[in-house]
User: What shape does this take?
Amino acid sequence: ISGAIACADVLGIFGRYGVGLATYWALHDNESFAYAALRVYRNYDGQGAAFGDIALNATSSDKENVSVYGSLDAAHTDRVVAVVINKATSTKTVGLRLAHPSAFAALSRYELSGGNAQLTSKPDVAAKADNAWVIMLPAQSVTVLVP
Assistant: This one.
């Protein structure tokens, strides 16, 4: 999972700063977690859904342990995708607020954690207030959130 966390984090940083191309050079036969991190941004739902093409400013109240990368799809401005990475070895609960003109009642969630290199669909997270959620992140995990 540490390889997935590192790869997902660097891809989020690349997106935040407008890097237009990234590549991955496999060093071992089993790079399943690194490839899972690539799927976080390019095919998180197994149906081709991807991170948007416009970076959104996103931050965490626990910057040391939790990174957040947000995006918007220029062609469909109601399509927002956030990648939240818990680098800590313990579960973290974070608040998330989305500044967007549309009101979103729930977030769909896809998660990569533990010893399984597959993104797994998890139950939706209901909003606690207008475009505000409280989300529990498993230890050392990568979570994709989609309103």
